[in-house]
Amino acid sequence: MTRIKTSPDGPPPGKIRRTTLRDVARLSGVSDISVSRVMRGAPSVSPGLRERVMAAADALGYTPNRLAGALKTQSSNLVAVVVPSIGNGVFPEVLDGIETVLTKAGLQPVLGITQYDRAREVQVLRDMLAWTPMGVIMAGTDHDPAVRSMIAQQDIPVVEFMDIDHAPMQAGVGISNRRAAIAVADLLADRGYRRPGYIGAWGEQPDRSRARREAFEERLAERGIPLRDREISPKPATVEGGGRSTERLLTRTPDIDAIFYANDDQALGGLFHCQRAGLRIPQDIGIIGFNGIGMGLATPVVLSSVETPRYQMGVEAARLLLSAEQAPIRGRIVDLGFRIRQGESL
Amino acid sequence: MTRIKTSPDGPPPGKIRRTTLRDVARLSGVSDISVSRVMRGAPSVSPGLRERVMAAADALGYTPNRLAGALKTQSSNLVAVVVPSIGNGVFPEVLDGIETVLTKAGLQPVLGITQYDRAREVQVLRDMLAWTPMGVIMAGTDHDPAVRSMIAQQDIPVVEFMDIDHAPMQAGVGISNRRAAIAVADLLADRGYRRPGYIGAWGEQPDRSRARREAFEERLAERGIPLRDREISPKPATVEGGGRSTERLLTRTPDIDAIFYANDDQALGGLFHCQRAGLRIPQDIGIIGFNGIGMGLATPVVLSSVETPRYQMGVEAARLLLSAEQAPIRGRIVDLGFRIRQGESL
DNA sequence: AGGAGATGTGGTAGCGTTGTCATTGGGGAT
DNA sequence: ATCCCCAATGACAACGCTACCACATCTCCT
Questions:
Q1: How far apart are CA B79 and CA A267, in angstroms?
Q2: In angstroms, rounded to a whole number, what is the distance separating the alpha carbons of residues B328 and B140?
Q3: Do B85 and A96 touch (CB under 8 A)?
Q4: Phi, then psi, of A286 in degrees rounded to 5
Q5: Which of A200, A260, B45, B314 has its CA 20 to 30 A from that of B234?
Q6: Mind telling me how many Å the CA of B192 is from chain A's nearest CA?
Q7: What CA–CA distance (Å, rounded) separates A276 from A269?
């Protein structure tokens, strides 16, 4: 069989071609690899050559193509960051911390949002792994088996953040939601509340919020104070929704004397609702939230809440991932702890 | 010169090798390209072959390497998304909209955060362009010249969101901050306020907030009501900070009868501060914010504010970018408009 | 029957970069 | 002077994938 040499990949017809390392090499009269070395700041390059190359690169407006570089080196500076939501709530602050640390280390976060959907989480992670990230940071420890097998396949470091009540795949950063819930239960009991209620949202999708509530109820029961009633909204947690949930709960069970909210947004809504309804806080009803957002400090009645270190959680998650380059992180758990802010609402 | 064939890139010693398309091809007994076609869902593949390939791919847990694919096709499904901050404020909601639309279209947002720093914006964009994204979405229209030249060099679609008072590089989505400011000035004048103040944050870093304030002052002047005083915090906008700024402003200039805030966070802080200080709202002092966050609706005194379509802005920005595949977007401006929420605070 | 097209499959090269050697040319040690 | 070593530079192939063409069948016309 004769095969005529046919130059399969000719230059695209109309399309302009991206400036490449080779263009820079030609212009500066050196070899490709020398340009590569200069661009990467590799050692063993004379100042003169470096200067000539730099000048040529600037003149051409050359930007290295990381696609090619990463393909060759089998490594990238990408980090897959997978969170359930970003519209509001705690994740933007965690992301902020993650981004700050990663960027400083020259890494590039790639964001994936699951909408609290396990199937989407698998899809999102698959799409990100296709870019051969050097690591993964994800929220929560409750994942589809497919997530675990994909991670195992790739053999890259993974850090899970939020919750440390359950074992992470490799390493975890966060707080113990169970312990926080127990602390709140004890606080309520100690303060003499006897008919506590609970309000949550998102249909308790992130398992950790369900676990937190269950721990809350268990501890209350141990202290001889059964949970009087609860109201779980299927919708996202908002201030407005928190007001509505509170109204519903108190209409159904008016003798409730304190409410533990799964988050501060709902708690603030509840606080405002009670004020409008003419209830005195905390005399008629005690209110305690979760997360300790800044706004709760500025309200006329300072909101009591469990303060969680969200930004710090992102920082530590990113640091832990970075440390994987030095030493294996398997088994590392970072407990950042929480603090109960005793405001005026409980 | 004799050159011995030396297999330069042999298999890495200890390191495990990623499963490749070729592995799948070998296992299923077909050619590389056939596997490629199956994985991409390309046409002209018989059902039998497809099935055999899929089985082999599943068996090996194969994930395509997009690095290689994108390098070959000179295109990726990545979209660079550049915003000034993410910790709180308006951007998470915009990002949510962007992410929803892009993901649905099979695109992958890559996040870059500039911390309101023009130099960082250049750096961040450069890093992202190195991955040959198919498009860019960025906040604001006020960029370093280097940003413009990098974009021009790459010849990819760019959508700028937030503000449409200034011409975007290619296409823009947002509202007119100037018109919004003018509407607020008119509202104040019409309501009989005569000694208005203004409170901003971030040192007015995003130029659009300065432009907004200037438009506000100009219109007030036109209506014969000079701005009485203003207070610009250099720090990020927070509820707590808004309270402090308000206190400072009112201490310095106690006869102010209304305050326009650059954002709702500060406005809520101001509202709470005034309540604590025993001022009646809106009789003693009128308060109006900017952005129309949900929380303002739930406060005991409903916050008046300029409602901006943040989620929608993200959605439209992403859609506009997607539409660039069909028709050029140069010159396209999408004005999403705003609505003044007349609450109880003004 | 003979061709024209449609359909499925494969071979090859190359996307832009970098790892691995090879090569060159001093400079210092002997 | 001779040797060795190291710093500076270069040649080449390969990372994993897909565009481009070639080719073998297999219809379906005329």
A1: 37
A2: 20
A3: yes
A4: -95, 145
A5: B314
A6: 28
A7: 11
